[in-house]
């Protein structure tokens, strides 16, 4: 066998092996489920962040980002967020210039409103924690800030 034939054969075997590997990975794993209730503020905050990150990731999602802000955020906080973004040159919902790879919402427990901690994952070990506050009556977000940083 000459070297050209060996290279072609090796490339073919490698392509088949990689193809089988992808197939095996795609079918491996256990089924997952996600549940929530529209009456639950933690679910609503998780829905907002999930949809917002999808819109920020998808091409042409700017209109959806604005619609989500309009639906989930109080009018006063939308103005506050716009001012924050102008001052900081970043997305106020994500508190960043880029979009995270993953997110997690955790109930932080309060009595007069709902407070959640949002953990945004940017890479292998890079995370940001945000605090999000939502009213119990209107189910609107009235504050987003970095965990451990005072309100603006």
How are the secondary structure elements laid out?
Blueprint: H1 3-27, H2 41-57, H3 62-72, H4 75-88, E1 102-107, E2 114-121, E3 127-134, E4 141-146
Antiparallel strand pairs: 1-2, 2-3, 3-4
Helix pairs in contact: 2-3
Compact description:
With 152 residues, the protein is α+β, with helices and mostly antiparallel strands.
Structure commentary:
It is a single chain. The chain is α+β, with helices and mostly antiparallel strands and 152 residues long. Helices cover 44% and strands 18% of the residues. The protein has four helices and four strands, in the order ααααββββ. It has helices spanning 3-27, 41-57, 62-72, 75-88; strands at 102-107, 114-121, 127-134, 141-146. A four-stranded antiparallel beta sheet has the order 1-2-3-4, with helices on one face. Helix 2 (41-57) packs antiparallel against helix 3. It is globular and about 45 Å long. The protein starts with a helix and ends in a 6-residue tail after the last strand. The relative contact order is 0.12. The model is unreliable at 3-25 (pLDDT under 50).
Brief descriptors of the model:
152 residues; alpha+beta; 4-stranded antiparallel β-sheet; 4 strands; 18% strand
> Treating each run of at least 4 consecutive H or I residues as one helix, how many helices?
4
Globally, the shape reads: globular
**Are there runs of 5+ residues with pLDDT below 50, and where?**
3-25
Structural class by sheet pairing and helices? alpha+beta
Please give the largest β-sheet: 4 strands, antiparallel
Mean pLDDT reading: 83
The end-to-end span amounts to 72 Å
What Rg do the Cα atoms give?
22 Å
User: How much strand?
Assistant: 15-25%
> SSE order in H/E notation?
HHHHEEEE
Strand order of the largest sheet: 1-2-3-4
Number of strands: 4
Helix content: 40-55%
């Amino acid at each position: 066998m000459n070297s050209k034939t060996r290279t072609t054969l090796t490339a073919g075997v490698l392509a088949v092996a990689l193809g089988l590997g992808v197939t095996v990975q795609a079918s491996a794993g256990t089924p997952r489920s996600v549940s929530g209730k529209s009456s639950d503020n933690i679910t609503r905050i998780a829905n907002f962040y999930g949809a917002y990150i999808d819109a920020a990731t998808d091409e042409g999602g700017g209109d959806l980002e604005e619609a989500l802000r309009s639906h989930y955020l109080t009018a006063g906080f939308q103005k506050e967020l716009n001012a924050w973004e102008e001052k900081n040159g970043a997305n106020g919902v994500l508190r960043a210039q880029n979009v995270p790879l993953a997110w997690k919402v955790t109930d932080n427990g309060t009595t007069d409103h709902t407070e959640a901690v949002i953990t945004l994952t940017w890479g292998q070990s890079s995370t940001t924690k945000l605090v999000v506050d939502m009213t119990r009556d209107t189910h609107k977000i009235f504050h987003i800030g970095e965990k451990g940083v005072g309100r603006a």
